[in-house]
Amino acid sequence: MTGSVTGIFITAEAGAPMRSVNEARAVAGTGLEGDRYWVGVGFYSATPTTPGARELTLIAEEQLDQVARDGFPLAPGEHRRNISTRGVALDELLGRRFRIGGVLCEGVRACPPCNHLEAVTGRALLAPLIDRGGLRARIVTGGMIRVGDVIRLVDVSDN
User: Which domains does the chain have, with CATH numbers?
Assistant: First the structure.
């Protein structure tokens, strides 16, 4: 299974609009350089989360296409995920290691929509994005992620 990166989005402030970038440095244990979670100012709910679950978030363009067909089109980055993808079933990456270009990641948790997304966007997006919110991933080994990078599963020998 392989797919590709179609967009990279970061913002340095919690609640601020996401901005599109062509590349970003992924830092193990932290996130994308310059992003709110890398800086340590992201929105943190009181709900405990899996270690690494705030380092990187991904969402499938195919899911966004369906949400748009259902009457809820989203502007690029409005989904508030770091990486948009095409051609990869993100739910199949849960609990598995995968590479985005040369960056080794591990899918740690589903990324359902939350009330904060609705507060920031001012749109009722919880229902349209239920079961379509993407994936949270831990960055195992860092490096650069670029638009167009291939996303692929790795086997144990490729860690």
Answer: 2-158 (2.40.33.20)
- Mean pLDDT by 10-residue block, N- to C-terminus, for the chain (159 residues)? 93 87 96 87 56 82 91 85 95 96 95 73 75 90 98 79
CA separation, residue 148 to residues 12, 37, 111 (Å): 23, 23, 22
For residue 130, count other CB atoms closer than 10 A to its CB.
10
Among 141, 75, 138, smallest CA distance to 111 is for: 138
Q: Write down the pLDDT at residue 48.
A: 47
Helices (H), 50-121: 61-69, 115-121
